[in-house]
Amino acid sequence: IEVKEQKRHQQKHSGPKAERKKLKKQGGSTEEDERKRNPRAFAVQSAVRMAKMFHRSQDIKTKKHHIPLVDRTPVEPPPVVIVVVGPPKVGKSTLIRCLIKNFTRQKLGDVCGPVTIVSGKKRRLTFMECNNDINTMIDLAKVADLVLMLIDASFGFEMETFEFLNICQVHGSPRIMGVLTHLDSFKNNKALRKTKKNLKHRFWTEVYQGAKLFYLSGMVYDEYQSQEVKNLGRFISVMKFRPLVWQTSHPYVLVDRMEDLTDPERLRTDPKCDRTVSLYGYLRGTYLKNKGQVHVPGVGDFQVADVNFLPDPCPLPDAQKKRALNEKERLLYAPMAGVGGVVYDKDAVYIDLPANHVNQQVCEEVQPTTELVQSLIDAHSTLDAKMAASKVSLFSNSTTLDPLVFDQQKKDCPREEWIWDPSTQRERRAVIFTEKEDFDEDSGSSDDEDTDQEEEEDVDQTHLSTFLRKARAGCEGTEKSTLDGRPPVKKQKLDEQSEEWEMSTELLAFADSEDDLEMSEEEKDKKKEAGREGDSGHSSVEEEDQSDDEAEEDVAAAEASVEGEPGEYKIASSGCGSMNTVCTFLPVDHPQKKKRVIANYVDCSRFNPDTSHNWDLEEMLSSIRDCFVTGKWEEDQDAAALLKEDEKLFGEFEDLETGEVHQGLDAVHDAEDSLVKVDLEEVQKKKRLEKKRRLKERFDAEYDDGDATYFDDLKEEMQKQAEVNRAEFKDEDDETRVQYEGFRPGMYIRLEISSVPCEFVINFDPHYPIIIGGLGSSEGNIGYLQMRLKKHRWYERILKTRDPLILSLGWRRFQTIPLYHIEDHNGRHRLLKYTPQHMHCGASIWGPITPQGTGFLAVQSVAGMKANFRIAATGVILDLDKSVIVMKKLKLIGYPYKIFKNTCFVKVGAYSLV
Ligand SMILES: Nc1nc2c(ncn2[C@@H]2O[C@H](COP(=O)(O)OP(=O)(O)OP(=O)(O)O)[C@@H](O)[C@H]2O)c(=O)[nH]1
């Protein structure tokens, strides 16, 4: 029988794999080893660079200082809010269903309203799907802890993704993770790989380098592959979340249940009467006082009539000993989707619909009440029908805008192309980037050639990314969320946060490990660097602007540190041992430093033996004595000391010039040998102790006393305060605690609000979120606000003074009439007819008082999607107190104050969920 010879293994001779193997063969000669073998080559070469490095390390250290806040995290925190966002039909509901099934082993039919589950022993998750209505996007971005951003890989980026990213950046930057779906539509592996890479890079540019991107590679029976979902789930369940300033300073509730408590008789006589409703949900953010003022986005400001806490409908398991949750502990609570079992309220019992979930036990309980349930179903469907029929336009009275289209701006924006998708029967808003930005450009190159340059080009040309970086730096949930004009401190805080994020993600086994595999070494290095330096790698415009000044400072700092620096100059040692050779100082390849050489010794190279000198004179001799090795040099280079060392080393020798015989130390101390040994041991021990002491000193200096700054003290104090706070109420029952503390985050509460417009109930649709945002003491007032605003670079039009604009600020969405102005050199505010194209300008509005530094965004219309990019402008609240002065200034330059005062403010809130 003929045996067919099998194809032999072909070893690779080039490419990253071969390089790695070569390195391994050479015994892993990495850069690290070289540093050890040849430390001089890696010593300081440039003082300027050294100074820069020093600055950088100081910067990084400073970044670690946050203004400490008292840790008010409750022992049992509220569920983490995960907002699943993406263009229509991308797979949002499918993903939520899969994740729920992964955690609870239960199948949910319709994903409708917030769905809360117990994901582990210490964590609960609330999933909320975000549709593509701009209002929903704005509201959910404000309460999200984590955003799962779904991207249809078969289609590419759609405008909705970028809009949501922008909204997130303005309102505090929750965690953002990308998820690629529809990967199964790629038949060709190479195309798949390339698409993944392109999308990953674009995502990184928009979010941050190394941002997590998951791949859902296909579907099995209309579900994503369980292993991939499991990985994603695991990632979510151990993820750390950063506290965002707006969220942690305001109590808020993402409502998961709503009941109309209005008297039926009143309803019958007046169907349009104001309603009394009870709203339920987990309290998040900070403590809520009873009878406080709240804002419900899209509805308005309300005084809370009553607040109570209810038993937790989806509690964490009690015992912490067990390793995994048992079936009973894997709870699921989603009243708006019809899952919640029997819910007991203060004064009523609510019954779940058995058809919608699989909990048999609850189904049995519900059996006797089928009739009641049926009536509920009927009522619900009537409401649905009503809902479908009625459409309330939020801003129907607002003036229609006369759009000013500036063609030259178009080149700044990525193009939006409306593409008809026959499979989903809808138009999709594809984002087309400029050619250079297209990562396909490097299609000819291998992964390894995926160079910095490419990345830089990309970053430079992407206006959105520049914007995002700026916004990220400014709006990063810190006290201030400015865009361009933010002080650098806030930026540092951001970087630090990103650093933490990087660190926390590193602890995990990533689901898309393939992601890492496909990364070239260079990319990995880059990623590491980005991780090390936080987001500082994303140099902002300001950083660039400052760089010149910094360079000057660096030089000055470097100059101060050059002189006498060891390692900067070598002493030519050749022949120094000989009495007749002169020593010279050779500067290390740094010509400019020659002039800075200040030799501590007489420069013997200038010694001219021909000049007649009387060398018999002692003073003449001593003038050049120190030029020779026998002279008095520095302590460790003192000739006498060196000779002594030699003696120790070489023992006995005879001085041939003098004939003197020197005895080696060994010989001298032969008799005291044992004593010496003991001494040596002593010395070594001392040395060891000394070394230990120095190490400890260094450690202490870094961690305690040495570096103990005001911040550290403050932090410690806050920590103690937090412990005292916790201990104080630990043993009290909740009823008493609530009296003193208010309702604490993590509690499941019921808020009763009266005088709610009837449209709130009539138009109720669980797919739109209801949020209750607590207001601070002054946040219920309305007044003049001065803000800094910039037209979004992707927005096609510029904005006109006194054209109505819809702002999202704090919890609110409202329409107002802004005045744009710019500060002249004389300090006066000159009124602008239009916003500048690429610059910030001031804007003054009449609107709800919101704390300084709060970010806002503006849209011209909340209905439809006709604009290329819906976000018209972004900015930050500048000042509240001086706003009146601005008004006066505006008046001074001839602006009619009266008109502004009376007509500027259109409406805060609107009585409809649009
Ligand atoms: N082939 C394929 N189909 C998918 C994938 N993800 C989702 N789908 C299908 O796309 C359709 C829409 O999925 P949904 O989960 O309803 O999408 P959605 O984003 O919730 O849609 P809307 O809520 O209507 O915006 C469903 O038929 C899914 O089976 C995927 O990765 N591959």
From TrEMBL:
<keyword id="KW-0342">GTP-binding</keyword>
<protein>
    <submittedName>
        <fullName>BMS1 ribosome biogenesis factor</fullName>
    </submittedName>
</protein>
<feature type="compositionally biased region" description="Basic residues">
    <location>
        <begin position="1"/>
        <end position="25"/>
    </location>
</feature>
<dbReference type="GO" id="GO:0003924">
    <property type="term" value="F:GTPase activity"/>
</dbReference>
<dbReference type="InterPro" id="IPR039761">
    <property type="entry name" value="Bms1/Tsr1"/>
</dbReference>
<dbReference type="GO" id="GO:0005525">
    <property type="term" value="F:GTP binding"/>
</dbReference>
<dbReference type="GO" id="GO:0005654">
    <property type="term" value="C:nucleoplasm"/>
</dbReference>
<feature type="region of interest" description="Disordered">
    <location>
        <begin position="434"/>
        <end position="571"/>
    </location>
</feature>
<feature type="compositionally biased region" description="Basic and acidic residues">
    <location>
        <begin position="523"/>
        <end position="536"/>
    </location>
</feature>
<dbReference type="GO" id="GO:0032040">
    <property type="term" value="C:small-subunit processome"/>
</dbReference>
<dbReference type="InterPro" id="IPR012948">
    <property type="entry name" value="AARP2CN"/>
</dbReference>
<dbReference type="GO" id="GO:0030686">
    <property type="term" value="C:90S preribosome"/>
</dbReference>
<feature type="compositionally biased region" description="Acidic residues">
    <location>
        <begin position="542"/>
        <end position="556"/>
    </location>
</feature>
<keyword id="KW-0378">Hydrolase</keyword>
<keyword id="KW-0690">Ribosome biogenesis</keyword>
<keyword id="KW-0067">ATP-binding</keyword>
<keyword id="KW-0597">Phosphoprotein</keyword>
<dbReference type="GO" id="GO:0000479">
    <property type="term" value="P:endonucleolytic cleavage of tricistronic rRNA transcript (SSU-rRNA, 5.8S rRNA, LSU-rRNA)"/>
</dbReference>
<feature type="compositionally biased region" description="Acidic residues">
    <location>
        <begin position="512"/>
        <end position="522"/>
    </location>
</feature>
<dbReference type="InterPro" id="IPR030387">
    <property type="entry name" value="G_Bms1/Tsr1_dom"/>
</dbReference>
<dbReference type="GO" id="GO:0005524">
    <property type="term" value="F:ATP binding"/>
</dbReference>
<comment type="similarity">
    <text>Belongs to the TRAFAC class translation factor GTPase superfamily. Bms1-like GTPase family. BMS1 subfamily.</text>
</comment>
<dbReference type="Pfam" id="PF08142">
    <property type="entry name" value="AARP2CN"/>
</dbReference>
<feature type="domain" description="Bms1-type G">
    <location>
        <begin position="77"/>
        <end position="242"/>
    </location>
</feature>
<dbReference type="InterPro" id="IPR027417">
    <property type="entry name" value="P-loop_NTPase"/>
</dbReference>
<dbReference type="Pfam" id="PF04950">
    <property type="entry name" value="RIBIOP_C"/>
</dbReference>
<dbReference type="InterPro" id="IPR007034">
    <property type="entry name" value="BMS1_TSR1_C"/>
</dbReference>
<keyword id="KW-0547">Nucleotide-binding</keyword>
<dbReference type="InterPro" id="IPR037875">
    <property type="entry name" value="Bms1_N"/>
</dbReference>
<dbReference type="GO" id="GO:0000462">
    <property type="term" value="P:maturation of SSU-rRNA from tricistronic rRNA transcript (SSU-rRNA, 5.8S rRNA, LSU-rRNA)"/>
</dbReference>
<keyword id="KW-0539">Nucleus</keyword>
<feature type="compositionally biased region" description="Acidic residues">
    <location>
        <begin position="437"/>
        <end position="459"/>
    </location>
</feature>
<feature type="region of interest" description="Disordered">
    <location>
        <begin position="1"/>
        <end position="41"/>
    </location>
</feature>
<dbReference type="GO" id="GO:0034511">
    <property type="term" value="F:U3 snoRNA binding"/>
</dbReference>
